[in-house]
Structures are given as structure tokens and as C-alpha cells.
Automatic annotation (TrEMBL), chain A:
GO terms for biological process, alphabetical: lipoprotein localization to outer membrane
Keywords, comma-separated and alphabetical: Cell membrane, Membrane, Transmembrane, Transmembrane helix
Domain ABC3 transporter permease C-terminal: start-end pairs: 269-400
Keyword RNA-binding listed: no
Species assigned in the record: Lacinutrix neustonica
The protein's name: ABC transporter permease
Automatic annotation (TrEMBL), chain B:
Family classification: Belongs to the ABC transporter superfamily. Macrolide exporter (TC 3.A.1.122) family.
Lineage: Bacteria, Pseudomonadati, Bacteroidota, Flavobacteriia, Flavobacteriales
Gene3D superfamilies: P-loop containing nucleotide triphosphate hydrolases (3.40.50.300)
One Pfam family named in its UniProt record: ABC_tran
Ranges where the ABC transporter domain occurs: 6-208
InterPro entries: AAA+_ATPase, ABC_transporter-like_ATP-bd, ABC_transporter-like_CS, ABC_transpr_LolD-like, MacB-like_ATP-bd, P-loop_NTPase
Positions of transmembrane segments: none
Keywords for this protein: ATP-binding, Nucleotide-binding, Transport
SUPFAM superfamilies (alphabetical): P-loop containing nucleoside triphosphate hydrolases
Name the UniProt record assigns to this protein: ABC transporter ATP-binding protein
Keyword Nucleotide-binding among record annotations: yes
PANTHER family named among the record's database cross-references: ABC TRANSPORTER ABCH.1 (PTHR24220:SF86), IMPORT ATP-BINDING PROTEIN (PTHR24220)
Length: 406, 209
């Protein structure tokens, strides 16, 4: 009875109900699209950055992160790979040996970051081969050649097919020295990396450093939408926690995490303002609903309807209008996101170049994580519940005679 | 000897007692017995509605006591008073007293739903009441589709629905033409005789009686 009464009441003034529900609709739609867009951009940015650098998660020998020395490497272990890959959220593993060395060419010398990589695995994750600007990408783990960052090659005045000499410290204080043919030059978005990186086939790096079969890290790639902390915990439980440490990209790249946190705060404020404005519209409707029906409310109390039932009817009316807007807003949001997922927006012109210079795909991704839809719906519902307290309060304090005479 | 249904002693109502007091009702005694059909006659502003509201527990007297069927309603809590009205008092107001979004039968059935009457019993009673007021062919009409007289007859049917001990009608004929007014009074008088329900209605029209 109460449900029916509330439903009929909201359609007494169709235009007002439609306008109010439409304002809720647009608030939910805009909030969903906004969150989806920003989350999509962040997800894409994180994916791009972590695939070149740390991975979403990284496995090290325990203590490596505190003292990043080649002596803190661990032996490649098929069982470890298997344990990691058994987790359904893990999509790819990238074993790496990362060290520092001096690189020289004729009279030029520079400190460099050596990244011993499995070329095929890196290629599958971060399309490293597509960043080659001159020459070729390294193909196998035994290829006796390296790929240099463009900036580094320029500083050392090296070209493709030139030879670079590398000198560093090997495993257990041995000396690490070798010369390699420059097979290709690569352009990376991160300037620091571009000016210092030497990509080397993993086995060559291990051989050069006297660290056969040893790794500094295994970078773990995950599904973009995976809950990082949950997977970290799960991986920690599946591997030997005494031998290895598991770190998230947030722990390894705190600056980026903090940047996203700060940027998100701004977005929350924008969405908050949006909801604040919408709240006024909804509140206005609720006020109208109660003030124009004072006489009728008084009659209902007079004939024996308890005030809390009446307040509940008004509460239902508020929820129904909100749900109407929410429901249609979520459907519209879902369809728009579906559309942009199928047909993503591609940047063109200068913006495209800027994005690509930073090593980020020049595409706007929309996140379709269900959390976005659920959270926005709950926020609007919560708002309407809070706002509905006022009409409820007015009914509870209503004097039937005054209401009937109004 | 008939049972006393309304017993009000020394009832007064003063509006704005702290600023400019308006004495709407002063030291009134009302004694009505079960089954009586009583008209409260007086010009506009004479305090009829105020007195009726106090008899029905819609307003509190500034002074005095009101007993309905032996229960002192002036001391009941708000919730108990609403419950008391639901089961003991039927109201008919001047106008616009039906729920506009409900049909005639839903308006009448609404009170019975508040009383938690089973659906089948409710349906039967609603039809019988609407027949009593001559609106069996308008059961699915909304108030906006009914004339003023028909709306008041639905209001009477609704007031009767809960089988109240008394029906208080505040100028029920005020907004009706003379024919509809006479018709409504006939129905009320008939129900008073047949159902033995006490009617107390106010009017400023001397000819209503």
C-alpha cells in the first residue's frame, strides 16, 4: 500500500519528477564517465610505466630493495615461475638482471643502467621493439648486442653497429667488463631512462657479471583491474617468504602513487561539487512535495495514519525518484563506456606526440570497473536518504489541524 | 438510557495566548449520546471547527477535558491518539479531503488497510459502503473525475469504513450546491438510523437541519 501510494504520488507532478530524475540521471552519468575516464587514464598510465620499469609487482631476494647490489640477486628458479603463474591474476613474468656500470666510447664515459632482459617476454608486455628508432631490437637472450637509449647513444656519440665498452662490478666483487655491438637505439618517454639505459639480453648480462642464472628481480604483470594488495598477499603466500620479497609498484614508485593520489583528490572535489548542486535540486523537489501537500498530509494523520508511516511514504518517494535517475544514469553510463571501450578515442597531432614521447599510448581509455558504477549509485542513494530525513522530520512535527487548515 | 459518547467539560481554546489572545471557544460543555444526529450551527468564525477539532483529538483544548466513549482523549499520547481516531472517529472535512491519486474504492479501503483488515473482507466492505452512498458505479473513479457531492459521499463512506463510534463532519455541505448538500445530509441521516452511528456535524446554514 505504502509503495503504491509513494509511486502514485511521484507521478502527480510528472514534469517535476522527470526534471528531478533527469538531474540525478546527469549527475550519475557525468560522475560515472568522469571516474571511468580518470581511472582509465590512470590505469593506462600505470600499465605503461610499470611495464617498462617495475611491473605491477616485483619479486626480489629478501633485502634487495634496501641494498640494490648484484650480490643480492637470486638464482632463476622454474618453481618460482610456476608458483607465480599459478595465480590467475598474473599475466606475464619478466625476469631481469639490473646493474649499474660505466659505458665508454673513445674518450666518452658515462654511468649507465644495464637491464638484462628476456627480449621476447619484454616485447610481449611493453612493445619495446616498437620504440626502436634506429637499427633493430635484440631478439634472443644470447644475442651479443645491446640496445641503447637514444640520449645515451647521443652523449657517447654511438651509432648503430658501433661498439660500446661496459665496465662494472660483477657478482661477489668480480669485475664485469665486456664490449657489445650497438644493435639498435630506443626512444623512451622517461628522459632519465632514455639517457642511461642499456638493454642487454639476459644471458649476456648474467655472463658479463659472472652471475650465471641469477636475477635481481622478476617483474610480474597483472590484469589491469586486479586488486594489487590482494594479489601481493596471495603471491607472498604461494612463494617462499623467507627467500623472497614481494613489492608493489606503489611501494617502488612512491612519487607516481602520490601524484595519482593528489590528482584524484581534485577529481573527488569536482564530483563532490556536482553532487552538491544536484542535492539542492533534489531537496527543492522534496520541499515542494511536502509543502504543497500539507493539507493532504494533515487529513491522512487525522483519519488515522501514523506519522512514521507518512514519513516513510515521503522517504520512499525520494528514493524512487533517485533510483529512477540512478538506474537510467548507470545504464547510459554503461552504454557510453561500452562504446568508448569498443571505439577508444585516439589522440592526434601534438598531443599524440607528447603522449608517445612519454611512452604512454596516445589513447583515452575508459575504465569499466564495476566499482565505479556501484560507488556512484551508492553515493547518490545515500544523498537522497540523507535529504529525505528533512521531509520525514517535517511530517513528524506536523500538527494535523494546522496542516489541514493550510 | 443511552450511553454517553461525547462528554466535554469546560472546554476552552485560546489562540496566541502569549501575544494577542483569541478566544475561539470558551467554557463549552458538550454531552452527546450514542446514535444522536447533532448539528453544530453557528456563523463563520464562531468556533465550530475548533470545537469539532477538539472533540476529534485533532487539537488540544487550552482548558477542559474531552471524553469519547469514556476515554479521556486529552491525555492520550500523539501515537495513541492517532490510533484512537483510526478505530473510533470518522472525519468528513469541508473539501479536498480525499487522496487525489487513489480511486474511490482505494480511498475508502485505505483506512481499512491501516487497520490491517484482510483483503477479501476489505473488498466486500468497501463495495458495500460505496453502495450505501450510491456510488457503486464510481468505484474506480479518481477524485478529480467525481463531482463535489460525489467526493463528499466517498468521504462519508471512508469515515464509515472503520465502523467508528462517531463521525465528525466539519461543514461537509459548505462547498456543495443545495441539491448535493441535501442528498449528502439524507445519506448521513439514513446511515445514522441504520448503522446507529453518532453524527456531529457543523454548519453555518440554518436550513441544514
Amino acid at each position: 500500500m505504502l509503495l503504491k501510494l509513494a509511486w502514485l504520488n511521484i507521478w502527480r507532478n510528472k514534469r517535476r519528477t522527470i526534471i528531478t530524475a533527469t538531474s540525478v540521471f546527469f549527475a550519475v552519468l557525468l560522475a560515472i564517465l568522469f571516474r571511468s575516464l580518470t581511472d582509465g587514464i590512470y590505469d593506462n598510465m600505470i600499465h605503461n610505466v610499470v611495464s617498462y620499469s617495475s611491473g605491477y609487482l616485483q619479486i626480489h631476494q629478501k633485502g634487495y630493495w634496501e641494498e640494490q647490489s648484484i650480490d643480492n640477486t637470486f638464482e632463476e628458479d622454474g618453481q618460482l615461475y610456476q608458483d607465480l603463474l599459478n595465480n590467475p591474476n598474473v599475466t606475464q613474468l619478466m625476469p631481469r638482471l639490473q646493474t649499474f656500470a660505466l659505458a665508454s666510447n673513445t674518450d666518452k664515459t658515462k654511468g649507465v643502467l644495464i637491464l638484462g632482459i628476456d627480449p621476447a617476454k619484454e616485447k610481449a608486455v611493453n612493445n619495446l621493439h616498437e620504440k626502436i628508432t634506429e637499427g633493430q631490437y635484440i631478439v634472443t637472450t644470447t644475442d651479443h648486442a645491446v640496445v641503447l637509449g637514444e640520449g645515451l647513444a647521443s652523449q657517447l656519440k654511438l651509432k648503430v653497429n658501433d661498439t660500446v665498452v661496459l665496465l662494472g662490478q660483477g657478482y661477489h666483487a668480480s669485475s664485469a667488463a665486456a664490449k657489445f655491438r650497438v644493435k639498435g637505439l630506443i626512444k623512451l618517454g622517461a628522459i632519465e631512462l632514455n639517457n642511461s639505459v642499456v638493454y642487454m639480453p639476459l644471458q649476456q648480462a648474467q655472463y658479463m657479471h659472472g652471475a650465471t642464472n641469477r636475477l635481481t628481480s622478476v617483474s610480474v604483470m597483472l590484469d589491469k583491474t586486479t586488486n594489487l594488495e590482494r594479489v601481493k598477499q596471495s603471491l607472498k603466500e604461494s612463494i617462499d617468504a623467507n627467500a623472497y620479497e614481494v613489492m608493489t609498484w606503489k611501494e617502488m614508485m612512491r612519487e607516481m602513487d602520490q601524484f595519482i593520489e593528489a590528482d584524484s583528490t581534485g577529481h573527488y572535489i569536482i564530483i563532490g561539487i556536482l553532487y552538491f548542486v544536484i542535492s539542492f535540486g533534489l531537496f527543492g523537489t522534496l520541499l515542494m512535495m511536502i509543502f504543497e501537500r500539507q493539507h493532504e498530509l494533515g487529513i491522512l494523520i487525522a483519519i488515522g495514519m501514523k506519522k512514521h508511516l507518512l514519513a516513510f511514504v515521503l522517504f520512499l518517494e525520494s528514493i524512487m525518484i533517485t533510483l529512477l535517475g540512478c538506474f537510467t544514469g548507470v545504464i547510459a553510463g554503461f552504454l557510453v563506456i561500452k562504446w568508448f571501450t569498443a571505439y577508444p578515442i585516439h589522440f592526434t597531432g601534438e598531443l599524440k606526440e607528447v603522449y608517445e614521447d612519454y611512452g604512454i599510448e596516445s589513447i583515452i581509455y575508459f575504465s569499466s570497473h564495476e566499482k565505479i558504477f556501484i560507488v556512484q549509485t551508492l553515493v547518490v542513494l545515500l544523498l537522497s536518504i540523507l535529504l529525505a530525513f528533512y521531509p520525514g522530520y517535517k511530517v513528524m512535527t506536523l500538527k494535523p489541524v494546522e496542516a489541514i487548515n493550510s | 438510557m443511552a450511553k454517553t459518547i461525547i462528554d466535554a467539560h469546560n472546554v476552552s481554546k485560546t489562540f496566541n495566548p502569549k501575544t494577542i489572545p483569541v478566544h475561539a471557544v470558551q467554557n463549552v460543555h458538550v454531552h452527546i449520546e450514542e446514535g444522536e444526529f447533532v448539528a453544530l450551527v453557528g456563523p463563520s468564525g464562531s468556533g465550530k471547527s475548533t470545537l469539532l477539532n477538539m472533540m476529534g483529538g485533532l487539537d488540544e483544548p487550552t482548558e477542559g477535558t474531552v471524553f469519547i466513549d469514556g476515554i479521556q482523549i486529552t491525555t492520550l499520547s500523539e501515537n495513541k491518539l492517532i490510533d484512537f481516531r483510526l478505530h473510533n472517529i470518522g472525519f468528513v472535512f469541508q473539501a479536498f479531503n480525499l487522496i487525489p491519486v487513489l480511486t474511490a474504492k482505494e480511498n475508502v479501503g485505505f483506512v481499512l488497510q491501516l487497520q490491517h483488515m484482510p483483503k477479501n473482507d476489505r473488498k466486500k466492505r468497501v463495495l458495500s459502503l460505496l453502495e450505501d452512498v450510491g456510488l457503486e458505479d464510481k468505484i474506480n473513479s479518481k477524485p478529480s473525475e467525481l463531482s463535489g457531492g460525489q467526493q463528499q459521499r466517498v468521504a462519508v463512506a471512508r469515515a464509515l469504513a472503520s465502523k467508528p463510534k462517531i463521525i465528525l463532519a466539519d461543514e461537509p455541505t459548505a462547498n456543495l450546491d443545495s441539491k448535493s448538500a441535501a442528498n449528502l445530509l439524507d445519506i448521513m441521516a439514513k446511515l445514522n438510523k441504520e448503522e446507529k452511528i453518532t453524527f456531529l456535524f457543523s454548519t453555518h446554514d440554518q436550513e441544514s437541519d
